[in-house]
Amino acid sequence: MSPRKSPNLNNFFSGAKQSQQLSEAEQEISYLKAEIEKLRASGSQELESQLSELRKQLASKAGVLDVALEEIQPNKEQPRQTFLAESIEAMAHSLATYGQLEPIILIREDAPSVRGENLIIFDGERRWRSAKKLGWQSIKAVLMEQPEDLHKKALLTSLHREDLNPLDKAEAIVRELSFQTELNASEIPRTVATAVRRLNKYKQMNRVVELLTVNTQEQSSGLSELNLDENEKLLLSLLLNLQLNPASVDANIFTMLSLAPDLKEAIRNLGLKGVHALALNKLSAKNLKISERKAKSVRVEKTKQVTLKKLSAAETRKLVNEVLEKYAGSEAKSHRELKTIVRAKVNLQHLSDEVLASADASQLKALEEVLRQKLAAIETVLKIDTPHE
């Protein structure tokens, strides 16, 4: 298997000059966009500088425009669905203090809207949201034509950025795989998990990881040698094409999809990290042996504690274990108390008429007093637990 060569852009950028003819500029812009997608997919550190270069190329072709905020639409295929309030506040402060230092990149969609052009954000949604918060009427932008496979390019645009949270990433990957395969979104994580478990069982997962560095044809050939059904092979092939390790996706990304709804909300609104959410997800009704409503209350309380105190992952796991031990202890205590009641009932049943007849009067009166007190206590408890009609 020959390794895939990464794009070499040094010669390309050294030859870019302002005096290029329009046709040459368009070719360079097209090439640059393609290379950016490759860099997104490979997680290259050069990504932000290439985006900056794309802005320059687009600006040299059509100029930097002042575009009304109301004419701009967020990209529905954008993987990033989480924009924390504090992040928007920080960007708004920067815009208000220093102004807009870089134009956002907009896609001119093929289908016009009722107001004219459809302008979709390719890069810069946080700046657009912050400008709206400041009450700006317009924002500086450069335009490019709509790329083919916009949904995939939108995924690659954000997929390998470190600050994309794993929940947004998981949902974006599932959307892309569902679009490519027409499989139901709920089938995809399950199918990938089944394939990964089998490959791990037969010690073949390393062979899949090796396919990350080869071309598409060699990937297909390599997957064909493994014991995979058609859907498994297709999904693993698509993940490899996105430069994603299927085992890592299964263990660290798709697990986000099974989080409790309150934890997903905390990721989106409170900035809860994925590793913290996975730890807190253990505080389930099943593990705590309580109702789902009470379990949610416990999770919400502990989630606030984690976020406000900025606990580390290790500290969060320790906190969760303490809660689990506490409820396990409560359950054990309740179980012991229940056994005491059962034993008392059995002992009373064993008091036969013969035993009672053989006891003296003082013993019977003492037993009668104890039973009377306990009966009164039982009646009080029953009244509390019985709802009024």
UniProtKB/TrEMBL annotation:
Coiled coil: none annotated. It comes from Stanieria cyanosphaera (strain ATCC 29371 / PCC 7437). It comes from the Bacteria. This is ParB family protein. Residues 65-160 form the ParB-like N-terminal domain. InterPro entries: Chromosome_partition/occlusion, ParB/RepB/Spo0J, ParB/Sulfiredoxin_sf, ParB_N. Residues 1-24 are annotated as: Disordered. Belongs to the ParB family. GO terms for molecular function: DNA binding. PANTHER family: CHROMOSOME-PARTITIONING PROTEIN PARB-RELATED. Keywords: Plasmid. GO terms for biological process: chromosome segregation. SUPFAM superfamilies: ParB/Sulfiredoxin (SSF110849). GO terms for cellular component: chromosome.
